[in-house]
């Protein structure tokens, strides 16, 4: 692991765009992110022992831009599985969510299954990654579990970190490990003690009413802190579940292999009937918005589905009513990092933009032919449409011709 951790640029951008919410329900404090159109049934991400709500920032940014709603939560300080079920149900009531799709990794996957077992009417589907069905093996490996609540913080952190394989790693896996380690440092002693208590309290998942066809098992095939025997039990319990294996990714594929994980999450949501609402995402063009090759291939393969989504009736709700407000901590220095939508660029006076484009056009002039393509490349993709760009370029050509005669 690296000695000094530097936050990734995309994480810094995420923090500037997505507000962190904190609410207290009873005696439990919840820390969570909620981003995406409110009219879409949410995908709720539950982390493992070493994770926080922040570890799913790559899923929040990617899926929300496609029109999905993603809620990522911290596991609150609960000291029993029964207390977890009650606390999580109260949280869903507080955020006005009734039916959910749960994505849980490691301990988060175990807690998601327990909630689906005891609150079957609220859980529509499950995505389980590197998870398990019972805690007996973890309890046997921790004979000192009765004194967890009295154990000093540095010993709890050391115990959690020993479960994370320490190098050598591929660069993308090493970066994921460093990020998770940085999140562990933010957890208090009570946070760590409660999560380890949930891991060692002897309990097993019983039968679920969720159909196997609404369950996706997404595991990594290289290595993982969860023993292979426990992951095999998951597959045996849900034989008809959709299986999505990642060749590599380590313990935290949502950070090390985000494109693949996001693709499988998107396919799962489509398969269980969750329709994205890209029309409610502000500042996003209707056409191709870029992305990874896997995402582009997915868009091509599901072209028919996207056409069906575009067909429908009724007026769309206001975008401002379906997205959370901007973070209050965002300062004026962060404005350069924020995306510019079509409305804001159209309201800008061309007198501020034209001089820069004219100067560029003059420098790109070759003989009597202007490099109009270079001017078009200056316009932001998806911000100024093609016709506006052509009109603007014609005006610039006219200005340059006038200047050349002077």
TrEMBL record:
Record's compositionally biased regions (Polar residues): 316-340
Predominant place of localization: cytoplasm
Location of the AB hydrolase-1 domain: 41-137
Any one Gene Ontology cellular component term annotated for this protein: cytoplasm
Comp. bias (Basic and acidic residues): 295-311
Entry superkingdom: Eukaryota
Subcellular localization(s) per the UniProt record: Cytoplasm
Disordered: annotated span: 276-340
InterPro entries reported in the protein's UniProt record: AB_hydrolase_1, AB_hydrolase_fold, Maspardin
Keywords: Cytoplasm
Protein name: Maspardin
Species whose genome carries this gene: Nelumbo nucifera (Sacred lotus)
């Amino acid at each position: 692991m690296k000695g000094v951790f530097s936050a990734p640029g995309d994480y810094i951008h995420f923090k500037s765009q997505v507000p962190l919410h904190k609410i207290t329900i009873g005696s439990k404090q919840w820390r969570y992110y909620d981003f995406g159109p409110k009219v879409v049934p949410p995908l709720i991400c539950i982390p493992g022992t070493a994770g926080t709500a922040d570890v799913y920032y790559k899923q929040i940014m990617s899926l929300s831009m496609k029109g999905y709603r993603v809620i990522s939560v911290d596991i609150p300080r609960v000291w029993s599985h029964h207390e977890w079920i009650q606390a999580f149900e109260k949280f869903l009531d507080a955020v006005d969510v009734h039916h959910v799709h749960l994505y849980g990794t490691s301990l988060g996957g175990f807690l998601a299954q327990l909630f689906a077992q005891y609150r079957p009417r609220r859980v529509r589907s499950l995505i389980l990654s590197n998870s398990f069905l019972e805690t007996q093996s973890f309890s046997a490996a921790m004979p000192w579990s009765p004194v967890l609540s009295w154990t000093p913080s540095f010993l709890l952190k050391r115990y959690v970190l020993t479960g994370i394989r320490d190098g050598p790693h591929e660069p993308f896996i090493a970066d994921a490990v460093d990020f998770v380690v940085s999140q562990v440092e933010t957890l208090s002693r009570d946070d760590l003690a409660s999560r380890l208590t949930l891991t060692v309290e002897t309990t097993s998942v019983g039968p679920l009413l969720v159909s196997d066809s609404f369950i996706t098992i997404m595991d990594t095939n290289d290595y993982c802190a969860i023993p292979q025997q426990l992951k095999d039990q998951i597959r045996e319990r849900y034989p008809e579940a959709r299986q999505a294996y990642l060749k590599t990714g380590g313990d935290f594929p949502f950070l090390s292999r985000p494109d693949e994980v996001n693709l499988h999450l998107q396919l799962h949501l489509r398969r269980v009937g969750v329709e994205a609402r890209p029309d409610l995402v502000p500042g996003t063009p209707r056409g191709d918005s870029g992305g990874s090759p896997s995402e582009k291939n997915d868009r091509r393969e599901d072209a028919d589905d996207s056409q069906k989504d575009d067909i429908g009736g009724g007026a769309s709700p206001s975008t401002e009513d379906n997205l959370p407000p901007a973070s209050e901590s965002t300062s004026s220095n962060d404005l350069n990092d924020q995306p510019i939508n079509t409305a804001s660029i159209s309201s800008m006076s061309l007198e501020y933009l034209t001089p820069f484009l004219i100067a560029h056009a003059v420098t790109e002039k070759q003989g009597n032919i202007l490099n109009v393509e270079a001017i078009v490349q200056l316009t932001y993709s998806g911000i100024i449409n093609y016709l506006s760009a052509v009109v603007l370029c014609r005006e610039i050509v006219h200005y340059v011709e006038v200047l050349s005669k002077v």
